[in-house]
Amino acid sequence: MAYQKIDSYAQTLDEEVRTSVKNASALKTKSRVDSLWRDFQDPDKLREVSGLIKQHVIENLDTYLPKVEEALTERGVKVHWASDAEEARKIILGLMQSIGAKKMVKSKSMVSEEIELGHYLEKHGMEAVETDLGEYIVQIDHDHPSHIVTPIIHKNRRQIAESFEREGLGEYNDDPAVITARARKFLRNKYLEAEVGLTGANFISAESGRLVIVTNEGNSRFCLAPTKMHIALVGIEKIVPRDTDLALFLNLLARSATGQKLTIYTEFINGPKSPEQPDGPEQMHVVLLDNGRSDVLASECRDILRCIRCGACLNVCPVYRQASGHAYRSVYPGPVGAVLSPILDAKKFPELADLPKASSLCGACHEVCPVNIPIPDLLLRLRDKAKKEHIHSPNTPPMGGWSILASEPILWKSALIAGAVMNVINPDLIPLPPVKRWTMVRKLPDWHGGEFRKWFKNRKVDGKK
Amino acid sequence: MLLEHLHHRPKPANKKIQLMTTCLCDAFFDDVAKATVQVLEYLGCEISLPDEQTCCGQPAFNGGDWPSSRRVVRHTAKVFHSDDTVVTPSGSCAAMLFHGALLEFEKEKDLPEIEKLANKTWELTDYIYNGLGIKTWPGKLNAKVAFHRSCHTRGTESGPASLALLDSIEGLEIMPFGEGEQCCGFGGTFSVTFPFISSQMGHAKLAHAQASNPDYLVSGDMGCLMHLGGIVERDGMKLKTRHAAQILRDSLIEGGLI
Amino acid sequence: MSTEQFASSREKILSKVNTALAPIKDRAAMPEYDPRITVTKTFDPQADQWAFFKEEFDKVHGRTFSTGAEIEAFFASNNLTYGYCDPKILALMSEILPDNVLLETQFDLAKIDSYQFGITCASGAIAETGSIILTDKDTSRRLGALAPWVHIACVEHSSIHATIHDALKAMPDDPNIIWCTGPSKTADIEGILIEGVHGPGIQGCFLLP
Q1: Which residue among B16, B24, B106, C127 is least enclosed by CB atoms within 10 Å?
Q2: Is some CB atom of chain A closer than 8 A to the CB atom of C192?
Q3: Structure pTM?
Q4: Interaxial angle between packed helices B195-211 and A5-12, expressed in degrees from 0 to 180 and rounded to the nearest 10
């Protein structure tokens, strides 16, 4: 029997991984609720307003993008525009070469994963080291993150200890405190050797040009202390209108992700270092990246561009918990990824069209989204799109015949009567695939087709109640 | 947060209603539809049952075959053309008509007809609690009830309405259980397109519900209960499933009111 | 799909954005909202802002020092004897700290791991979240605040903001503003909390007299 890819993946997932993912997700889901309702009278109001602000921004990107460019340029930041991944990679490589740099330290950036920057730089003789602990472990394992906020939710300490030993960071030791201390020491040298620090940005204020970068580890700060050049790679949709609007987004972001009020570090950067400041990059470059976002903007799913990458939808999603991030075969997994990944690169739609189907449409993602994205509605639109484009989908019962049945009352009522045969045959013998897949898991209820109608009619006829 | 459309839905003008049985009750769960009638007639409603009704169109909508779904929804709009309130014992069918249908008819010329249908459609407990304003339920029933709020009632007032009505029944105790926000795994066609994940989700839900030691697992949606009840039967678990309408009806019977 | 040649990527991107937005009849408007919805429930306008800050900073495992005696005791009990200090407050700190403490006002990169602590000036704080505000202008050396295991930020009472909203409204004209809300940490390994990753493992805040 053919299974949907994500269902297959879930079946073969290591039980230990599934348990880790489930426990971490459940904890973060609870922390989110606890912190939001502890701290605010009406958290849903904050979500609603934030959603409206972000929708406003994306529907006015034609004015906001130039505003951001101006605000940054005025403050001595060089703004670059990259239509696609290839252009972005070339710009970044070019910038490194322009100062004779060989070493980069990277703060966590999903966009840099998206454009596959690391491999490209290495191919061109550059060293680009991930400094976020989770991303560093992903890098040395030649793995992929399985969550957009907590990238190694699928790994345990033993695996990490083995990786560290393999990298020459010390003899096997799986104490998390020891692992972290070793990473601190090793990466500190990398910061000090590097010429270039690369970051993403969680938000850019159109008012002041400030890039907002949130971390817990202090790695983005360290990427910008001993280095000479700061390169920020940012998707064009990351804009917010004013500095004061950040109060909404910052209050929602960390609570939605982990239940913290704020992450440990919240940085606001709109220029190279002050002249009097001895530490810090003397050059700052912002690369504004399109890479398919303008296509998403043109689509019926543009609302997904509101996303502030908190991961709350991944944390609450029952399908994500069963399958884990790698099942989605994309940089962006989970509910947000199920919408974004198939449409960010139009060529990938047929290959990833099964992602929007991997959902019971429960709506929990919509309920937790800090910018109120109606994810189930977007998933449904993509299912419609897939059907229109004749993309084959295993296990989906064909609906054409059913719709005839359900729009011709005579046929329908006949079927109600005829269905009684199901009570007589062993359901396991019915050759209809959907029935088989139903009975694999659950017993079929007894067929009572037509009985309610009969009862209602007779009841009325007798005048009895 | 309330679905956009529900902000505009007018209150019922009178107690004349058209019952939408739902395809599941039409085929399998006649007692749930029967209980719905008994409960509504007790409240003084005048019920008509349009004979040509079939299905709300949700299966094809969820499956991505919107043209097929629209065909069925058009038929349903025709069948329920009268101005009488449409009441249905299913959160997901109601949501299909006041949310899903509006989405798939966005670009269609007959969207106004579909909006008319959306404007008069109510899920059963929402209708009782908010439409008719009945805040406590009479009768009695000695039972411990684990209540499962179906996912398609998100964005509506059905969940709180069901819970409030059940909780108000004399002798009935609501047993809270963990991770209520997690879907049971039915999801319509999802249950057969992703059978493994659907099964895992169903088992997880049942484990939580059972841990609270209830007499009944109750929901306002037969989709959820058909899936959960089906697992219960296949695995030989000791847990009885009931629809909210059946509990409301049984409470009236126990209380000698019908 | 147009095969136009664009003079630059900038033009190409803006053109695609314009095309994407053209069919939208009514662009989503910027909502009006009361900024007070962002203020947390714990906010008490009557509270002494330092006391309010202290309570929140404690929750995120920060260490507050309200008096010179407190910080002296901390240095003594933790055997902190060698570190970096902002020259602007050298005189003050020399007086307050134990006699055996050696303060360097030059931060030597070669000795980066021998500094047990860094003492720098904060530009402000936020009470509602327990955050210290650092800027390029007031921080004598970024690395002095970031690299040592212990960081002490010295803050003036009058510079403490009650809420995030207040702090955002009053952002100084500085290219690098950082809010530090406790010691650096990670939970990447099995969700276990470890403090002291790349930044300080102990984050202190001293109320300047």
Answers
A1: B106
A2: yes
A3: 0.96
A4: 60
